């Protein structure tokens, strides 16, 4: 995948692009993560699908921002569409990216051909204050991993950066707290505002979503299918082969424009 960049106002945003002549799938990661988390999926889908994975504001190689409100993330997606020169695309979003995807679809129904929402509900209530100790610079990569803990470190590792002073994260934990507070709330009206085809993917052992909630989301919205796969909250990392098969099967049912 090639790394490229564009601007939304004064903010420089980075993304990974698998290239090729395939149909476009825009992938949006969750908090703590970045575009690189979708590289295995891009390899799996190419060349039928050109995967464009955005480092959302404050993450990866994109600039840190002054604001992390709901409208800010959606404006970044709109700017990416303009930069790519496309009228419509399929959106895939995990966690934070999932809410961003279905809220963008709610406001731009003609621009979203279909969407894949990974392990996030229509009502979000999270507290990420426990990541405050991840701030700062650590003498070694091992020290940073130990601070994060063995359970979460594998999911955050793409965000590790080595600097002259030591090891640190590409994101600012304080920004993640602010972003999460804006993310919390009942977004049911946004979830129900579009009617494009949608695939809801839930991790069987996810601590973030509940089976009953996700089933209710699928039943209330037209053209929506729920699929539960092995794994926790980050299904695409926990079960990459199963995730790829599910995404491929879903995408095969979308007519080429």
UniProtKB/TrEMBL annotation:
Top-rank taxon, per record: Bacteria
Instruction: Fetch the PANTHER family from UniProt.
Output: HYDROLASE, PUTATIVE (AFU_ORTHOLOGUE AFUA_2G14860)-RELATED (PTHR43798:SF33), MONOACYLGLYCEROL LIPASE (PTHR43798)
Q: What is this protein called?
A: Alpha/beta fold hydrolase
Show the SUPFAM superfamilies listed in the entry. alpha/beta-Hydrolases
Question: Does this entry carry the keyword Hydrolase?
Answer: yes
| Residues of the AB hydrolase-1 domain | 26-246
A Pfam short name? Abhydrolase_6
Write the record's keywords in alphabetical order, separated by commas: Hydrolase
Q: Does the keyword Hydrolase apply?
A: yes
